């Protein structure tokens, strides 16, 4: 889905070198587009409360796969709701699940959205097994330990938990906005990267450049039609979430569930990504899924998939590339008082 020619890939998601040049051509378009929007990373034109029941119907990869992952050598701060000196586990998963249990969505906002575990027996010493459960002022801008001396090992592992109405970002396009629920406990490194992008308050260079409809192979619910081919077209829109002028560090492979309609996943190690317009069980477990588009916004993805395209061949795979790339502005929705 975004592989450069110097990164061979035989999947249907490969990317040609020509897109690099298209990116330069579209640079002016990107900046023109950005100037038309508010540069703040808090987009207030919609709120969590306005998303209504859509959030409840998002397929929560966290619950389906029982993910409980964090980032090693990271200590997130925040107000403690459980003191680790009196709350210990043998594994980081136990700590994570303890935080999740305080974020069921049944009793209002999450009481815990951050877990911090000391799991390196040698480095932790008497703190080994400590599980600190915390609450951030802003879960999309978590506080972290600062001023760590060079060479010093951080013995903590930290993770985020987003409850209902939390961890939602917004991909703004000229055709409408795509609201995406992030999955930090399944793809913590991926979500950490998205949080870094939010802090930049712009996304110059971010865009969709490939669009393929569901064709005659998948129905409107994303179900594959019996005896139909699996493409082309491949039922997806593809783009990049790399800011021009900012070095990108490859992301590790994380949770790779079966792709569903609305799944948002990386191509390889990123920063190329795609939104699936159908259920792609045939792709097995090849792609890190870091979020899901709320169902009510999928018509925006379908609209982009229907834009004019030109045919191309990527590593012997027939694909369709947008005649005119669609710039993206990355932002967040406004939290309501109720949420």
From TrEMBL:
Membrane recorded as keyword: yes
Keywords noted in UniProt:
Membrane, Transmembrane, Transmembrane helix
Give the matching InterPro entries: Cyclophilin-like_dom_sf, Cyclophilin-type_PPIase_dom
**PROSITE patterns, A to Z:** PROKAR_LIPOPROTEIN (PS51257)
Q: Which GO terms describe its molecular function?
A: peptidyl-prolyl cis-trans isomerase activity
Q: Where are the transmembrane segments?
A: 17-38
- What range(s) does the PPIase cyclophilin-type domain occupy? 169-322
> What range does the record give for the signal peptide?
none
Output the PANTHER family linked to this UniProt entry. Answer: EXPRESSED PROTEIN (PTHR46873:SF1)
Name under which the protein is recorded? PPIase cyclophilin-type domain-containing protein
